[in-house]
Design the sequence.
C-alpha cells in the first residue's frame, strides 16, 4: 500500500491478526485487556474462520500508546488467544469496506456513478436525492474515495475496519501458516 | 460403566480428584446445591464470616503449601466480596480457584435477585475465568481451572456456575492430561529457558564486578530456594530478597542484604543502584523496588528470568531476557557457569564489591530510637521480641502498612514459605484470614500474624471462624491508634496536616473484642510486659490469641525512598544521616 497513513498524521499503526478460540466472551476479553492496559485501538474486526473452533480478530493498534511487544505479550496471556501474527503493512494484504450514502441531485448522480466506477466501487441503492455506494480496498484507497465523495456531501457512512492477512511469500506454501497451535505464558 | 451425577456432585467429586483437602466458603442461594454433596465429602469446609475472608484464607493456604487454595461462595454480593482476594492473588501470583454460584441460566441477564456479571467483573483480575453453561462441562472446567492456576505464572482462576447447572444431571468422566491440554490450544507456558540466553547470562555473571541477585516471589513460586543458594554461593554474589521473596534466601547468610525498595535496607537499595549487573530472578521491577525508573540502577546490565514473557521489558529492557521457570533456569545457569569455569574461564574478582557492600551493612543497620522510660512501646521493639520468642520455623503473616514493613525488616527469615503478605495489591485486612489459611495449610507450624489496628478492624470477625474451627493462630496488633503509614506520609509530605487518619485510642477494646470471639486477649502497654505476654501467647495452642501492643503513635518507617524519587535519595534514620557520604 502507499506510504500514506490512513489513521492520522501522528499515529503509528500496526496490524495484529489474532487467532482465538471461538468461545463466548473472547471479544470482551481482548477489548477489556486493551482498555485496562491503556492501549489504543484504531479498528477491530472479528469473524469466524474457515475452522469452526476459531475466530480471527484483526486489530489495528496505535503504537504511540504502548510498545507493540507489550501488546502482543499481554494479549498472549489470554488463555483463549491461540496465535498472534504481527502484520507489517509492507508485508501484508489489507482490505477494508466502506458504505456511504451521498447527496445526489439528478444531475450529480451521473458524476457519482462515474466516480464510483473509477474507484471500482458499487452502487448499492439509489434514492430521489441520494445514492448509497460501497467500495472495498486498501484503507488509503478508501480515504481517497471518501475525499472525492465529500464534495457532494456524505449523509452517513460506515467503515468496517481493516482485515488483513500476511502477503504470501512466493516460495512458501500456504498451508504453513495454518497450524492453530500456539504458545503462551 | 456410565454414572449419572448432578452437576453439584460432579463439582465436588472433581475437587476431590484435584486433591482438594480443604475449602473456605459461605453458602447462599445459588450455590446451595453444591453444599449438599459436601456433607458426604472428605473435603473439609471452613465456614467463614465474610466471603473476603474465604478468599484470603485460600491465599494464605496457597502461600505456605504451594497448593491452590479454594474458596466457594454464592452469587452477587458474595462474588463481589471475593473480588478483592482474587485481585490480591492475581497481583501476587498466588494459585487459587474461586467458585461462585450464579443465577439459573434462564435468568442470566434479567437483573435477577443476587445476579451480577461475575465473569465480567473478574475478567481483568483472574488468570482465566469461565461461566459454565452445562453440567456436562464441569469436570473439564474444574481441571482447566486448576491446571491454569498452578502452571506457568500461578494465579487465580474463577468458575461461575449457574444454579440449574449444579442441579442438572451429567454423565461422569474425568478428562486426561492430554484432553486438558488439547482443550487449551492457546495455553502453553514456557518453562525451559533458552539455552543460548542462559549461556550468555553465565558469561555476563562471570564477567560482572558488581553483580546483585535481585530475587523476587517467582523464586518461591518455582520452589527454587535451594538452587538459588547454590548459585549465590558458587558465584559469591550478594542477594536482595524483595517483599514477596523474604525467606527465599536466609537472612542470616553472609551474602544476604535483606529487602530492597521503598523501605528496604540502605545496603540493598544502594547495592542495586551501584551494581553493574542485576540478575533478576522472578522479580518484576515493581515501582516500590525501582523508585524513579529512569534513575534505577543506571549502570547495571540486566538478566531477567521470568516465566511470564510480558514481564520482560515491561519496566526495564533486559540485556538478556530468559523466559522460563526460575528453578529450571537457575539449574541450567549453574551448569553453564560450571562449564565455563571448567573450560578455564575465570570469574571477575567480586572481592572489592563484597567488601564495599559489607561496609554499607556495618554503617547502615536498621535503626530506631529506644523508647524513653515510661513512654510508649516501640513497634520495632515488639517485633524483635516477637521474633526472638517465636518457635523455629514460625510462619509470619502481615497486613499492609507500617507494621508490614517493620515485620519484613525486623523478622529473620531463614526458610522459604514462612512469610505471607499482600505485596502487589496492598490489601489491608489480609493478615487475620491469611493467617488462618496458613495455619490450616501448616497445622504443624506456629503462625503469628502481625497486624495493624486499622487492618485488624477490617477482617477481625474471622477470628470467630478460627475459634470455632479450632485454628489457633496468634495475632500481634501493633496498635498505634492511627492509620500509621498514612500518618507518616501526612507528617512527611503534607506538612503534618493530619486528615482523617486518627482511628481511636479507646475504641474498640481489642482485648474484650478478642475475648468475645473466643480468643485469649492480652494487652501490652509497657516494654517490661512484652516478653511475658509473648511467652504466654506462644504457650496457648487450643485457641487463637490476640496481643494488643499499644505502641508509639508517631513512629515512622525508615529507611524510606519517597514515592517517585530516585533510590539515590533514600532517607535514612536520623542517627545515620552524618554517614551519608559512605553511600556514595
Sequence:
Amino acid at each position: 500500500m502507499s506510504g500514506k497513513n490512513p489513521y492520522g498524521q501522528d499515529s503509528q499503526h500496526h496490524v495484529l491478526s489474532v487467532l482465538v478460540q471461538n468461545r463466548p466472551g473472547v471479544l470482551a476479553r481482548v477489548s477489556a485487556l486493551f482498555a485496562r492496559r491503556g492501549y489504543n485501538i484504531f479498528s477491530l474486526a472479528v469473524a469466524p474462520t474457515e475452522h469452526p473452533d476459531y475466530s480471527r480478530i484483526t486489530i489495528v493498534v496505535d503504537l504511540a500508546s504502548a510498545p507493540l511487544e507489550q501488546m502482543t505479550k499481554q494479549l498472549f496471556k489470554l488463555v483463549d488467544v491461540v496465535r498472534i501474527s504481527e502484520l507489517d503493512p509492507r508485508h501484508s494484504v489489507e482490505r477494508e469496506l466502506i458504505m456511504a450514502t451521498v447527496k445526489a441531485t439528478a444531475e450529480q448522480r451521473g458524476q457519482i456513478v462515474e466516480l464510483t466506477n473509477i474507484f471500482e466501487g458499487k452502487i448499492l441503492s439509489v434514492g430521489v436525492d441520494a445514492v448509497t455506494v460501497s467500495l472495498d480496498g486498501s484503507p488509503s484507497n478508501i480515504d481517497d474515495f471518501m475525499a472525492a465523495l465529500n464534495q457532494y456531501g456524505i449523509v452517513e457512512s460506515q467503515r468496517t475496519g481493516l482485515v488483513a492477512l500476511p502477503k504470501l511469500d512466493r516460495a512458501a506454501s500456504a498451508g504453513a501458516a495454518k497450524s492453530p497451535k500456539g504458545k503462551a505464558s | 460403566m456410565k454414572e449419572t451425577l448432578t452437576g453439584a456432585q460432579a463439582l465436588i467429586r472433581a475437587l476431590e480428584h484435584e486433591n482438594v483437602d480443604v475449602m473456605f466458603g459461605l453458602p447462599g442461594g445459588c450455590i446451595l446445591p453444591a453444599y449438599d454433596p459436601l456433607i458426604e465429602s472428605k473435603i473439609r469446609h471452613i465456614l467463614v464470616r465474610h466471603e473476603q475472608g474465604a478468599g484470603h484464607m485460600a491465599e494464605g493456604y496457597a502461600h505456605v503449601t504451594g497448593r491452590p487454595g479454594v474458596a466457594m461462595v454464592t452469587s452477587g454480593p458474595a462474588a463481589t466480596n471475593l473480588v478483592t482476594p482474587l485481585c490480591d492473588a492475581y497481583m501476587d501470583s498466588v494459585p487459587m480457584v474461586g467458585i461462585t454460584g450464579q443465577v439459573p441460566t434462564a435468568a442470566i441477564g434479567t437483573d435477577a435477585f443476587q445476579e451480577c456479571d461475575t465473569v465480567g467483573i473478574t475478567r481483568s483480575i483472574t488468570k482465566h475465568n469461565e461461566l459454565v453453561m452445562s453440567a456436562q462441562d464441569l469436570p473439564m472446567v474444574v481441571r482447566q481451572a486448576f491446571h491454569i492456576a498452578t502452571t506457568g505464572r500461578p494465579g487465580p482462576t474463577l468458575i461461575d456456575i449457574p444454579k440449574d447447572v449444579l442441579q442438572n444431571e451429567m454423565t461422569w468422566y474425568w478428562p486426561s492430561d492430554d484432553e486438558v491440554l488439547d482443550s487449551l490450544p492457546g495455553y502453553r507456558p514456557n518453562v525451559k529457558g533458552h539455552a543460548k540466553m542462559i549461556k550468555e547470562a553465565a558469561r555476563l555473571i562471570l564477567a560482572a564486578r558488581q553483580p546483585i541477585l535481585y530475587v523476587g516471589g517467582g523464586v518461591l513460586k518455582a520452589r527454587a530456594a535451594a538452587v538459588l543458594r547454590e548459585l549465590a554461593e558458587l558465584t559469591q554474589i550478594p542477594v536482595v530478597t524483595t517483599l514477596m521473596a523474604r525467606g527465599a534466601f536466609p537472612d542470616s547468610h553472609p551474602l544476604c542484604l535483606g529487602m530492597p525498595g521503598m523501605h528496604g535496607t540502605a545496603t540493598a537499595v544502594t547495592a542495586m543502584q551501584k551494581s553493574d549487573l542485576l540478575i533478576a530472578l522472578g522479580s518484576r521491577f515493581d515501582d516500590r523496588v525501582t523508585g524513579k525508573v529512569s534513575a534505577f540502577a543506571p549502570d547495571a546490565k540486566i538478566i531477567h528470568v521470568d516465566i511470564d514473557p510480558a514481564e520482560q521489558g515491561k519496566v526495564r529492557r533486559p540485556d538478556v531476557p530468559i523466559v522460563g521457570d526460575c528453578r529450571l533456569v537457575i539449574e541450567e545457569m549453574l551448569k553453564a557457569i560450571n562449564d565455563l569455569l571448567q573450560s578455564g574461564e575465570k570469574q571477575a574478582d567480586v572481592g572489592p564489591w563484597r567488601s564495599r557492600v559489607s561496609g554499607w551493612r556495618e554503617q547502615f543497620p536498621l535503626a530506631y530510637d529506644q523508647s524513653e522510660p515510661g513512654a510508649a512501646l516501640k513497634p520495632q521493639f515488639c517485633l524483635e521480641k516477637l521474633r526472638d520468642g517465636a518457635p523455629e520455623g514460625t510462619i509470619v503473616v502481615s497486613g499492609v502498612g507500617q507494621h508490614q514493613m517493620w515485620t519484613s525488616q525486623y523478622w529473620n527469615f531463614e526458610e522459604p514459605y514462612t512469610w505471607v503478605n499482600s505485596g502487589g495489591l496492598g490489601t489491608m485486612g489480609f493478615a487475620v484470614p491469611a493467617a488462618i489459611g496458613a495455619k490450616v495449610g501448616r497445622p504443624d507450624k506456629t503462625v503469628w500474624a502481625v497486624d495493624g489496628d486499622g487492618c485488624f478492624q477490617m477482617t477481625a470477625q474471622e477470628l470467630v471462624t478460627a475459634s470455632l474451627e479450632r485454628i489457633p493462630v496468634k495475632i500481634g496488633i501493633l496498635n498505634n491508634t492511627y492509620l500509621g503509614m498514612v500518618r507518616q506520609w501526612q507528617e512527611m509530605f503534607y506538612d503534618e496536616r493530619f486528615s482523617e487518619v486518627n482511628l481511636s485510642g479507646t475504641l474498640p477494646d481489642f482485648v474484650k473484642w478478642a475475648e468475645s470471639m473466643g480468643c485469649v486477649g492480652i494487652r501490652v502497654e509497657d516494654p517490661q510486659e512484652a516478653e511475658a505476654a509473648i511467652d504466654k501467647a506462644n504457650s496457648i495452642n487450643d485457641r487463637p490469641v490476640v496481643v494488643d501492643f499499644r505502641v508509639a503513635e508517631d513512629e515512622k518507617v525508615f529507611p524510606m525512598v519517597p514515592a517517585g524519587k530516585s533510590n539515590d535519595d533514600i532517607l535514612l534514620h536520623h542517627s545515620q544521616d552524618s554517614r551519608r557520604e559512605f553511600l556514595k
Notes: Strands of chain A lie at 13-21, 41-48, 54-62, 81-87, 92-103, 122-126, 130-137, 154-159, 163-166. The helical segments of chain A are 26-37, 68-76, 106-118, 139-150.
